Every structure is written in structure tokens, then in C-alpha cells.
Amino acid sequence: MIPADRYESLGELLHDSLIQYKSETALIEFSRKREAHRWTYLDFMRRGQRLARGFQDLGVGAGDRVAIVMSNRSAWLLSAYAAFYRGAVVVPIDYKLEGDEQETLLAHAEPKLLCTEYGEWRSMPSASIGEAPYRTLVADVPASTELPAGSEKLEAAYEGDADFEAPDFVPRTRQDQATLVYSSGTGGKPKGCMLTHDNYLEQYRTLMELFPIAVGDRYFSILPTNHAIDFMCGFVGPFGCGATVVHQRSLRPELIRHVMQKHRITHMAVVPLILEAFERRLDEKLDEQSTARRVALHGLRQLNAALTLKKPRREVSKRLLKPVLEKLGPDLRLLFSGGAFVDEARARRFYELGLPVVIGYGLTEACTVLTVNDLKPFRADSVGAPVDGVEMQIRDADAGGIGEVWVRGRTVFAGYYKDPDQTAEVLQDGWLRTGDRGYLDPSGHLHLVGRSKNMIVTAGGKNIYPEDIESAFDGLECEELVVFAKDYLWPRHRSDALVGEELIAVVRPKESDEAGWEADLRKRNRTLPDFKRVSGYLLWDDEFPRTASMKVKRGVLADTLRKDAAPERLQELRS
Known about the structure:
Blueprint: H1 10-20, E1 25-31, E2 34-40, H2 41-57, E3 65-69, H3 74-85, E4 89-92, H4 99-109, E5 113-117, H5 118-122, H6 125-128, E6 135-139, E7 151-153, H7 154-158, E8 177-182, E9 192-196, H8 197-210, E10 218-221, H9 228-241, E11 244-248, H10 253-262, E12 267-270, H11 272-287, H12 291-307, H13 314-328, E13 334-337, H14 344-352, E14 357-361, E15 371-372, E16 385-386, E17 391-395, E18 403-408, E19 415-416, H15 420-426, E20 427-428, E21 431-440, E22 446-451, E23 456-457, E24 463-464, H16 466-471, E25 480-485, H17 486-489, E26 503-508, H18 517-526, E27 534-539, H19 554-564, E28 571-572
Parallel strand pairs: 1-11, 3-4, 3-5, 5-6, 6-7, 10-11, 10-12, 12-13, 13-14, 26-27
Antiparallel strand pairs: 1-2, 8-9, 9-19, 14-15, 15-16, 17-18, 18-21, 20-21, 21-22, 23-24, 25-26, 27-28
């Protein structure tokens, strides 16, 4: 591991890692079961510097913003490296958003340059017809396609002869901005989190000390690289340690399994839905075994649990449970899970089978993670203890010790881009209000019991903002409408408040209305993606509580609904 304290910026750390590990394999990219390419760190450096030269020729320099809208691929990491080399700010944008949503974020970020791929580029109206106020580099352009003025082929900027004029490295300080990161929501006012080089270098230090990655390890990058977890665990962390990052262009389950089994994957980050899919795969294989073999496996699982009670013991688990582990990947050592609640029983089962699931908690405003289970011992009942350097307080706690989680530390962001008011709301005297509710147990582990922030997180790790959905119902013939996750209002279990699979609308109708708005609500609802559709509505006659700036006080309204409204009052939204 290259020590973080030697460096002022991500650009410096990444550049030194390319030199130190120059003969090691940096990237392997698969297209289905075919290996598309394999680059050493030296290969990556040559391409990255050639791309940085192209950025320099386009005028990209200190503090300029370079947006990236791509699926997981080598070109994503090349673009980020070239931007950091030139002292620019990387703006990672979710490639799964619709084109108009991406352009909303691009308009807010005002980048000088966009790096994207052909499929995404075509869905962006302004970019694809040459009317965007920024230059664009596009990957995977068909040979017969001519790009409009202002757009060029990305590959041409980093492939070619080895001889080129070296780019100028632009130094940055730890306090300079490194990224501008947007969450998934775009329907309301975009929220861009400004994260500094110090935020990332400190996060890199704490995570790599807890979970070292080494030369020869292979990290399988399947979460979007614009996601905070994969940016750190699938780029900065492995590169700082000389490991290999593996990309698979298709994320079909059988192709993911092929890579895991055949190509010695050691680490990967997942969301709970992927863990669930892995568990189903194991169950399918177990169902094929005889009763005697299943009984024997249960005994070995219990023995492994006893022998790894204090900490993981990889060699012991591999010897006892080799046939099971090889079903997922013979060298798989750690699964990092975040983005949504991890089922306790599922996490414990994986651990007992010799595959630790590292459970953590974080948010974009704090870089990647705030708390994590260090596996000494493994615990599935919490989201772990604060990582080194993070102070945590539970404020305004109730009689049970449950209150709002506040944190302070060097990974806390610098604020929201172009939004001093929202920044002042969440950053107070150096403390970040997370908006999440929980409590600390006597051992210092955090337990989350609810999310009082607006964001809803699905079991697939997808962030949904109610404003996104509410904007689709603007102009509806009712007085007021807000959207909640049903389990946030009426949690069936303590953990359910963290996951919003079923969304509902709370509607205050007009006094003279005879539900004429319902047909319009149904019609608009059908135009939303499945994961954003509301399943029902609750009628509410009282005015919604609002702030001085007329924003709905969602927490206050939610408390009132929990107290005075029952879930039985919900009316199904007929399709």
C-alpha cells in the first residue's frame, strides 16, 4: 500500500502507483466470456498520460470540471486519472439515468469536458446534436458514424503511437476539490456534493488499513463506478495497493459467476440484492445434494462458525468448505456491502460459510463510509463502529437512546455546490447532520433504526428522492402531495425503515374534489420507471407542516402520520 500521508492529491497518489507497480496487471476487461484487453500499470499510465495531453489541448486545467457518464470500463478510470493529472474536478454521473436527467446534472455542474460512451451520448439531446456548452469525447462510436462539431472519439485521444508531447502535471492541495458527486435524485434541485482530495486520501488510508488489498488481489467492479463505494474500492484503493481491477461489460448473472469462478476474484462490493442472488445460487446447488451431504455440510458450517468466532480464518474455512466456496469463487475473500440494509441472517450465513460480508454505513456527504465492521469479531446486527478519525454523536435522543446521527471528521464534504443554504442546514460547527436515526451500543457500534432524510434506498441500493417522483405529479388537481416509503412511516421491523420497496403518496385533496385527480395520478404514475412508481395513496385533510421557505417538514409530517394514521387507510392505486 502506498501511504496516503505522502501526498497532497489523488493525482499524485495515482501517478506514483502507476510507476511503483508498473509491471503488475492494473485492469482486465471482459466482453461476455472474452477478454477484451489486459493492461499493466505501465500500459495504463501511457494511455492515461496521452489522454491527459488531449485534455490539456482542450484547455482543461486546475479546477475545471470533467464529467464522466459511462458504464464500468477501463475508459472510466482513464478519464478520471487524466482529469486528476490535469488538476480538474471529476463529476461522476450515473449512466443509468435518462438522458434528460443526465443533462440536468450537466447543466448544473457546468463541465468543460464530458467523457461518455455512444449509447449514453445518443440519449443526451444537446450533446448528440452538437449544441452542448462543453466538449465531448465519446467511446464506442460506430466506424460509419460522423460526430458533430464539439465531439470526438474518446479512443483516439488515448490510443495511437507511443510518441506524444507529455502533458503538464497540475498540482493540487488537499483542500482543493477533487470531485462533484450527485446522488440519483434529479427531479428537484440537484444536490452536488463537493469532496476534497483530503476527503479521499483520508478515506483511502482508513479503509486500506482495515482491509488491506495487495499485489495479486483482484477486485471485481460490478457496482457503478460513479457510486462512492466502487470509486474507492474499485479504483483508488486497488490502484494504491497494486491490485487488479476487473470489469465485465455485461452484468448477466451467469457472466458474473463466470468471472468470479474462472478469474480468481478476491474482493468485490455488492448491494443486498446481489447477496440475495448469491444465496439463491448456493441454495440451488445444495438442493441438488443428497440429504447426507446436506447434513454433513451443516455440521461443517457450524464447525467453521466456531473456529472463526473471533475473526475470519480463510485457510480454515477454505479447507472445511471448499466445495461451497468454489461455487462462488475459489479465491473470494471479502464482500463489501453498502447502500441499503443487509439482512442479518443472510450476512451471518455467508460468514459461517467462510465468506465474510463487510457491513458498513456511509453517505455521499462523507465520502464513502463512516462506520464499518472490522470482522474482529464479525457482527451482523449493526453497521459497525466509526472508522478511525470519525467522531459520532447521537443527538436529541429519546428514552431508548435513539436520536439523530451527527458526525465529524476529515472525510466530511466541503458542502453542496451552488447551495449555501442547504450546506448550512447539514454542516454546523464542523458537524454533519446525517439525517439518519440510530443509537450506539455499549461497544460503540452504530445501529440504524430509521432514515429521517428525504432519501429512500431500495434493496438494490438505488437512491430515490421523493422530489423526483413528486415532480411527475406537478399540477395535479389537489392541494398537496408528498411521497414516502411505506416502511418508513410504519416499519414492520426496526430495519425496514432503511429500505423503501413500496412507495406511497400522501394527498391532501381540494375541499370540493370528488377524487377527480386520481385518474390523472394513475396516468402519470404509469410513465415512471417501475422502481419509482407509487403503489397507493393516503388521504390527509390537514395542511402539511412547512418551513419558513415553504418546504414540507417531512419528518414532522411523518411523525404525525405514524401517530394518527394507520396503514389500513391506504388505498391501492389501481393501474
